[in-house]
Amino acid sequence: MTATAxxxxxxxxxxxxxxxxxxxxxxxxxxxxxxxxxxxxxxERDPDYIRETLPRLWLLSSLWFRxxxxxxxxxxxxxxxxxxxxxSGGNLTPDTTVFTLAFSTYFGVERAFHQLxxxxxxxxxxxxxxxxxxxxxxSMENAKRALDSGAAVLVYxxxxxxxxxxxxxxxxxxxxxxxxxIRLAIEQDVPLVPVVAVGGQETALFLSRGEHLxxxxxxxxxxxxxxxxxxxxxxxxxNVGDLLGHIPLPAKITVEALPPIHLREEFGPEPxxxxxxxxxxxxxxxxxxxxxxxxxxxxxx
Amino acid sequence: MRIAEHVDVSASPAIVFxxxxxxxxxxxxxxxxxxxxxxxxxxxxxxxxxxxLMRVGSAEVGGLIEVVEFDAGRDLAWNSVTGIDQRGRWRVxxxxxxxxxxxxxxxxxxxxxxxxxxxxxxxxxxIVRGNVKRTLAQLKRAVEHEQVRAEASRRRAART
Lengths: 301, 160
Hints:
The complex is a heterodimer of chains A (about 300) and B (about 160).
Chain A: H1 3-8, H2 13-22, H3 25-36, H4 47-64, E1 68-70, E2 81-85, H5 94-107, E3 113-117, H6 119-123, E4 135-137, H7 140-148, E5 152-155, H8 159-163, H9 180-188, E6 192-198, E7 205-208, H10 211-216, H11 219-223, E8 230-233, E9 237-240, E10 254-257, H12 263-267, H13 273-293
Parallel strand pairs in A: 1-10, 2-5, 2-6, 3-4, 3-5
Antiparallel strand pairs in A: 6-10, 7-8, 8-9
Helix pairs in contact in A: 2-3, 4-5, 7-9
Chain B: E1 2-9, H1 13-20, H2 26-29, E2 33-38, E3 49-56, E4 59-71, E5 75-80, E6 85-94, E7 100-109, H3 114-159
Antiparallel strand pairs in B: 1-7, 2-3, 3-4, 4-5, 5-6, 6-7
């Protein structure tokens, strides 16, 4: 496979052929998809593209989601920072759209800003434009590389697990015990800024993560997918997997960035990962409940 | 998109201009503006650079701007350096009956935004126009109240 093909995420037929020869069908699919996972090339972020597409994001964010982002002044003005968010809204993640617009206009598109996304998202041909926004495949190495370059990095520890939680758990921060982001912040010695969003889980009626179904079909081993979500969403009605996305209901999205946490200053030179994790989740949960308390009606906000 | 509004203020052009050209007072009267801070260069006047943001819809838009025209008591114009494309101008002129006509012009857009850019400019226009109108109303109130206070202070000083 050429470096270009890898970087651009286009599958190489040779990979598929080799994979088929060296294992079963599942192994072949796994290796083929693995071959399509883009290697993080931070230079793919294109400030001019972001700037030119800000009007689109503004329309979507302002008119459809009535987005409101607070506390951006809490994000350090420059230097690397790890933004940690709770994730909602199925595969469409309106909270990311609203926050990306707000961050880009507040700090300017000149400030390097990368978002970590599931490998499958970046492998999807229709979503290749996300790389121009600075989206890179979620991995410790890619996150370190981005932080080393001095960028702000947005990570959603809950990922696919949290984003498909049932709608009745919409006001719950659920990272599923994933603590890699704490280790990352400690290792890189960067401030951690919690970013709490509410409203995303009202863009459809999410019924179940479908974890058992995903397990039975071996999706975790194949695609690192722990869920096969079920939801009632437009235009499909019953939506299994949400792989084609859906038309989100125009739920009001409110996002709040909290003051930065300097882990070594607050938790000592060798911070305890579990203690920091509990602190961050508790902080975010309290904020989420406060934001939820402001809402009078679902969707309307 | 170009927006221009004006207001007549009962004060001299010099006093009005002093108000609009002082970066430390901008947040007091400029509606929708959440940030207006000096970024290098002179604090005020030609070449002064500010980071400004105005809340429009779901985002705070703006960027780095630079004062490109400064005619004391008459004109103050700025251009964007980074962020959305914008031009702004305070135009202060002596009017009739001792009034001063103050005009605020804002021109904004995103080059290369295409049809979405055009659409967003037109949908953002009423918000920005509302901010501009409120800005002028607040400026008028601030300047005229300051005048009244200054005159009262002078009268008190003359009596003692």
